Amino acid sequence: MMVQQSDDRDAIRSRLAGMWVAVADGWGKHADYADARGAQSAERMLELARVGAGDRVLELACGPGGVGLAAADRVGPGGEVVLTDVAEEMTAIAAARAAQLGLGNVAFRRVDIERIDEPDASYDVVLCREGLMFALEPGRAVAQIRRVLRPGGRVAFAVWGPRERNPWLGLVMDVVSVQIGAPVPPPGIPGPFALGDTGELGRLLDDAGLADVRVEELPVPLRTVSFDEWWRRTSALAGPLSAILASMPEAAAQALRERACEAVRAYETASGGLDFPGVALVATGRRGA
Which of 29, 59, 223, 262 is the most buried (most CB within 10 A)? Predict the structure, then answer.
């Protein structure tokens, strides 16, 4: 029974990894937007983790690399940032962006957040923005992170807060669920709001043995100039949703778009744009001596 359960989990992990490979192209095209969208979270993470000159930093689930590239500027030539993702297509995007910036203190590897193939006590800081909530076993991931931190090393995570407080994405999931007649994400598959409870997120870090655990809310509203802009970018970047949206027949896709347009009426501005509230959770801790 245990072997079967392990096999099932590995199959889900493989499916999730394939999902990120499939959407890597969209993340590459919208990398600058993703950086701008996540700038507040990134800045707060770097501040709370006290990333500074000479640090060795590991970024997990790096996507196009926005947080890690910002960290590379802070650690300077005497430090190093290793940007990793389960999808090599994502690390390739991050590497290309680092080359354009002329950064020489960065490295890139394929790493699964639940199976971090790095030596014990090898990093001063670990960062992960909007990745931990997609781990099938987040407790296992946090335990791995603690293992690779040096004594006194710091970690900072950012995840999305509750679904109902992030309608810019929650509404898309709602209308897709209605359209296909099934919940999104399906049962057993972690989604973007899987760690949206402040208490649960804090306990996850406590249970892994991290010290000085702190979780705070960070307002991250989303404003767009039009429905079309919001729909285009969300469709390209929304991980688990992107494959569903891309596979729909044209008539179904159009019906979904119309349903979404109606669902966001409450957030329309006088100029025709959209103004959504949004909340991220930023969690930090450190490895004890």
Answer: 59
Residue 259 domain-assigned (yes or no): no
In a domain, 181, yes or no: no
* Distance of alpha carbon 261 from alpha carbon 11, whole angstroms: 35
Calculate the CA dihedral of residues 27, 238, 191, 92 and round it to 10 degrees. Answer: -10
> E strands of 90-200, at which residues?
106-110, 123-129, 149-160
Whose CA is closest to 158, among 126, 204, 194, 127? 127
In a domain, 145, yes or no: yes
Give which of 27, 18, 116, 35 is closest to 69, Cα–Cα.
Answer: 35
Using CA atoms, how far residue 248 sits from 112, 130, 183, 234, 244, in Å, is: 30, 26, 16, 16, 7
Q: Which of 24, 29, 78, 89 is nearest to 56 (CA)?
A: 78
Distance CA 60, CA 62 (A): 5
Domain membership flag for residue 202: yes
Nearest-angstrom CA–CA distance, 140 and 158: 17
- For residue range 175-208, list pLDDT tens digits in order: 989 988 888 888 888 999 999 999 999 999 999 9
Residue 254 identity: Q
Count of H helices and E strands in the chain?
A: 11, 9
What are 200-235's pLDDT values in tens digits? 999 999 999 999 999 999 999 999 999 999 998 888
